[in-house]
User: Fold these one by one.
Assistant:
Number 1:
Amino acid sequence: MKLGQGQRLVMIGDSITDCERKFPQGEGLFQGVGKGYVALVDALLATAYPELSIRVTNMGIGGNTVRDLKARWQMDVIDLKPDWLTVMIGINDVWRQFDQPFIPESHVLLEEYEQTLEELVISAKQGLQGLQGVVLMTPFYLEPNSEDWMRKRMDEFGQAAKRVAERSGAHFVDIQAAFASQFKYIHPTAIASDRVHPGLAGHMVIARAVLKALGFEWERMED
């Protein structure tokens, strides 16, 4: 397990991360961490590692792109002084290119996405002395056909996230790949009606992939 005693895990992103979390900081009682994968990560860490007293903070905001993360990075990441940080961003960066094709100022293209994401990761690594690690997660689109226009563009952004992880020394989690096995048995709309916002089972797929990157030991759940 990579997280240590009393450490803080900050998880930042868009609506997939947000999931009705508490503001200004998503933590505490009464679903303060929201109702999605962050809540599942929090619950599993608290159940399997009660002795570690890990603090999980949800800083997702619905509709965000990497531009929005840059605007709030100091307040919502640096100032919180996390020991571990997860970042999942890019869905809206791609989505706006398809659902708002005639509003180009809402589009975040690949070069800007990759450059900004790398700037954010480097600033966290340089600005946070106690930071133990960063986990970069790919954006995803729940479509098994890799030649679908939006899926293909999302994969390009996922590859950009992978390149940033490799250059910056961050851990990399391919969320798109994590969903692939589900498509063998159920239609994507059974996971998410709009192919983007998953139900609880889809959030568990994400949580499991994140926990694997954090070194979670599932056998501890058997105690």
Note: The mean pLDDT is 96.
Number 2:
Amino acid sequence: MKVKEVMHKGVDWVSPDTPVTELAKLMRAHDIGCIPIGEDDRLIGMVTDRDIVCKGVASSNFDARRAMARDVMTEGIHCCREDDDLAKAIHHMEKLQVRRLPVINKSKRMVGILSLGDVSHSASGDNLLSECFRSVSAHH
């Protein structure tokens, strides 16, 4: 099975200058836990709901009215290709201990996101899936 058969399609990214309050509203409206951050037509990071809490709300000098995506984002992007075998992508997620991976095409354009939820819907009962869940969910 290929990543493109399982991934969530139609994903957009936002600028690093997007207010954190707007990110939270987007997450709530779309029922998602992460938003890719892009600049100059390339992905540069990711903001998760956990980033907003741990790097923002929990820090002593955080001002939600002024904070931008760049203030809480995790820099750097790990991704997979839409034509990758799903098993390869799952192993990549397992190694990185991440719950989501942006998916790119041959032109290096983001075409979707692969999440553990997407994987679980496609591979119920698979040992590979349960290994991935255990690894990704392990304490760091």
Note: The chain has six helices and seven strands.
